[in-house]
Amino acid sequence: MASYTPNINLKKPTTSEMYNVLDWNDNSDKIDTAIGNLNSQTWKKENATYTSNVDANNYTTPGFYQVGITTNSPYGSNPAYGILVVFSGSSGHCQQLFIAGHNGNMYIRGKNQGTDNFSVWYRVTTTAINT
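RESULT FIELD:
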């Protein structure tokens, strides 16, 4: 007899049961709905008001922020404007991803566990893919 996952109730047939495409489709719909709900909740944070003259080191709580970074900017002493995404881990470790508003360049850095020190910003290099 099949079991079900605890979070979104996906059906998990046993190895002795026959494959059923309807079960697969039902599970796929549940996953798609759950991700859609997560995205709509997450992006509501991004629609918050723009905050200027911020210190990037003060952003360690996970979330999406529209910011103008004037201290600890990816551009050194020059301000940076765009979206700051903060990911958090255990013991005070976090990562920041900054997406520049004027050109879409991305930068990433991390905060070391147990210290208040962030690494330098690293530009994420991307490659265009022709479609």
